[in-house]
Amino acid sequence: IVWGACFMGKGVRRAKTRRQHVSAAQLQGEIKMLNAQLGPLGLKVRDVQGDGNCLFRAASDQMYETSCRHSQIRQEVMQYIKDFPDDFAPFVEDDEPFEDYVARMQEDGEWGGNIEIQAMSVLYHADFVIHVYDGPRLEVRNPGATAVWHICYLSGEHYGSVRAVDRDKQEDDEPFE
């Protein structure tokens, strides 16, 4: 397995406690600023619901052009991680057994991170480009990739999909606040 940039560290679960501090207005402001940064590249953020499934919703949007298949993506990714423990167990926090991690992450609403992105990259043969506001693009590369998925990471707690401006649908496939 080829690992890309580990940019958010192992503390995804610990970070959950501070996630409630980012307001919707702050998040929308960051999306607006990121869109200004992405515009010259012909890209635009397509936000997804922030219900704990945002990484899987963003991946679903990249694969199917709808975030509605996030549960399917989550289950496929977690099954892949479960099937290849030697590739993923070393990256699970030391205080959580691998089997417990997999079981927890199979649950709706659990926040995904680096481990899940790497698994998606291999499972779906996709390189990831992760856009962050006012920072370098982060990449997860997979030698077997046949696609490139663009997502964004906002305020240290939320993923969104990034689409080409001419590919972006105007209507939401799933209304949310």
From TrEMBL:
<feature type="domain" description="OTU">
    <location>
        <begin position="43"/>
        <end position="165"/>
    </location>
</feature>
<dbReference type="InterPro" id="IPR003323">
    <property type="entry name" value="OTU_dom"/>
</dbReference>
<dbReference type="InterPro" id="IPR050704">
    <property type="entry name" value="Peptidase_C85-like"/>
</dbReference>
<protein>
    <recommendedName>
        <fullName>OTU domain-containing protein</fullName>
    </recommendedName>
</protein>
<dbReference type="InterPro" id="IPR038765">
    <property type="entry name" value="Papain-like_cys_pep_sf"/>
</dbReference>
<dbReference type="GO" id="GO:0016579">
    <property type="term" value="P:protein deubiquitination"/>
</dbReference>
<dbReference type="Pfam" id="PF02338">
    <property type="entry name" value="OTU"/>
</dbReference>
<dbReference type="GO" id="GO:0004843">
    <property type="term" value="F:cysteine-type deubiquitinase activity"/>
</dbReference>
